[in-house]
Amino acid sequence: MNISAIIPAYNEAATIGKVIEVLTLVEQVEEIIVVSDGSNDDTAKISRHWGANVIELSTNIGKGGAMKVGLNNCNADIVLFLDADLIGLTERHVMDLLRPVISQEVDMTIGIFEGGRFTTDLAQKVSPFLSGQRAVRKKVLDELCNMEITKFGVEIALTNYVRKHGIPYKKVMLDEMSHVMKEEKLGWKKGVQARMKMYWDIIRELTLVRQR
Q1: Residues 156-171: tens digit of each pLDDT
Q2: Could you say which of 3.10.450.330, 1.25.40.10, 3.90.550.10, 3.50.50.60 is the CATH number of the domain covering 3-180?
Q3: How do residues 63-73 score in pLDDT, each as one tens digit?
């Protein structure tokens, strides 16, 4: 099976290189696509340095839209989505996400942080289906409508779709892994503003889910 990794990224120059470096060590991953979602830092430059195929968007269209752009530019059987700000990612984590899908045990895995940092562990225990770390059979993604307009609600939309249609999935624990929080990247004020925007996207998608 062909496997592509897609990383949506907005101003993630500080961390994206390490994420790509780990992916280059996993022989099952044949292609790494970074969608630089209107970044104005060195995200694209660093991604190319580590060997990723980079798609640069001139404006920020949101996480769901960036993921959709990546999907439109790959022909894989299985797609691995990873966030660009991960801390502690290893080859084992990647394979833990991929293996159940490769073996056809399930059509989607959802990675849950465990034993990394208290704040990120807690957030994922409270809301595990918001995780951006997933391996998904591409045929499932091709059937998901309006992915590009979900923004930060994309994980809710995807989880709802597989539940509604009885598509098998499982949670995978990713030990000693976390990510950089928005307040750490942007400072307290801008970080809180970005977090509130993210929550708004999620709430909007949850509302739409209930209406479907």
Answers
A1: 888 888 988 999 999 9
A2: 3.90.550.10
A3: 889 999 999 99
